Amino acid sequence: MTTSKGYTYSASVFAGPYYLSIAGDLVSTAEHFDVFNPATGQVLAQAPSGSPEQLETAIASAKSAFKTWSALSYDQRQVYLNAYADALQAHRDELSQLLTLEQGKPLKTMAEPEVDQAISWIRQIATRRIPVEIVEDNDSHVVELHHTPLGVIGAITPWNFPVLLALWKVAPALITGNTMVIKPSPFTPLTTLRFGQIAQAVLPPGVLSVVSGGNELGPQMTAHADIAKISFTGSTETGKHVIRSAAGTMKRLTMEMGGNDAAIVLPDADFKAIIPQLYWGAVGNSGQWCVGIKRLYVHSSYRAEFVEAFVDYAKQQKMGNGLDPEVTVGPVQNKMQFDKVRTFLDDIKANGYKVVLGGEVDESRPGYFIPVTVVDNPPEQSMIVQQEQFGPIVPIIAYDDVDDVVARANDSPFGLGGSVWGRDTKAAVAVANRLETGMVWVNEIHTQGIDVPFGGHKQSGLGTEHGHEGRLLFTNPKTVLIKK
Ligand code: NAD
Known about the structure:
Layout: E1 20-22, E2 25-27, E3 31-37, E4 42-49, H1 52-71, H2 74-90, H3 92-103, H4 107-125, E5 133-137, E6 141-149, E7 152-156, H5 162-175, E8 179-183, H6 190-202, E9 208-210, H7 217-222, E10 229-233, H8 236-247, E11 252-256, E12 261-265, H9 275-283, E13 293-299, H10 303-315, H11 335-350, E14 354-357, E15 373-376, H12 383-386, E16 393-399, H13 402-410, E17 414-415, E18 418-421, H14 425-432, E19 441-442, E20 457-458, E21 461-462, H15 467-472, E22 475-483
Parallel strand pairs: 7-8, 7-10, 8-9, 10-11, 12-13, 12-18, 13-16, 15-16, 18-19
Antiparallel strand pairs: 1-2, 3-4, 5-6, 6-22, 11-21, 14-15, 17-20
Helix pairs in contact: 2-4, 2-6, 3-4, 3-6, 4-5
The structure holds nicotinamide-adenine-dinucleotide.
Nicotinamide-adenine-dinucleotide binds near residues 256 and 461.
């Protein structure tokens, strides 16, 4: 199929209708809702709106499947997960295109890598084991620590990385013996519905279900007595509702939430050489990263030069429809976010902060395009510095003193990630160690790995994903004390 602008994609992407995946079956719904293509603002497809009864059925089937799934060995579950990865691989191009169409991200530089990483991580995570530990062994008894699966996991996911963030939950939950019901964001349900559908062909019924619908499905999951744990990725505000609601049943929680990550470029940094990394760290995925650089602190000795070079680099990028191979910056994902990001632009304008790139939305342009905007040295207390913009606006803020910039970076209710950049690695690490965050990168950004814990400090998160620590959170530590 070729769009009016000449971008081509596989016709099979639209071969819908889309179905819920429940208990091994593809299930249609009475109601549907519109899913929009953010590059055009037009309706892309209709997604099934699951009813409370359908979600109930999905949870019941996950509970039933848990009995047999949890009884399998790790090796047996690995075989299933590898088969799932193979099946996803066969649909890799379709999933990537669909991801661009529903999310807006550039196909080659963002969507395909997201799908590829997700598939690769399923295979890698499937190799990991949590063995029984002997924690005490003496003349009278032996004590074993087992890590048993929890039961049904409810996964609630956002719209910025809908494939990766969901499959980041699926793989560790399933390999450790749990079953799962996923509720995707109503803004980006299509890829999740598709990989849910693909799962039904390879996984036993009930092991992985997908129920799309409105936000109201979330509270049904978080309060449900048969869901043992919620693995949530989304905003801090919604996260607080989730925590309150989960209290009634003492659910386990892993919460990955918002951030306002600072990048600190130290006085000795080779600042021109790192501009591409800083630019993509901030503007990649149109700034819709939880761990995106949202405050860029540079030393005042080279600020003017830095800003100029940053803007030059930004001008080399093309914003547009992610299907266009030349496009490196897509739209923001939805109208709600578009309106929210515009409030930052309005505030910047109203306060007369110095905009050196972008700043004005082209009202005649269809889709949800916010131009990459660079704000030169807004005040520390400004909205763009204090709040999470989650869009392609970069405040470049000057500092004079390293102690002062560390204090400013830490003066936030958030504490997700951060980065420190400098020629003297030892000195940069010393600064990194002072940041109150769940993660901090030194002279690199956004590198990840299945054994690398990923999580937030303060109001950015509870618990962690990835790593042995993250996988343990899908299990119950069960101590077995045996008299000799
Ligand atoms: P959101 O909080 O609006 O929605 C997230 C999910 O929660 C969606 O599936 C939504 O339908 C569901 N939901 C809404 N109300 C609910 C309720 N009352 N109970 C249960 N579930 C409910 O977040 P978003 O706008 O989709 O995503 C953007 C936010 O996510 C940003 O703040 C970003 O920083 C954060 N995020 C964090 C990480 C991380 O790993 N820390 C990763 C990606 C995004």
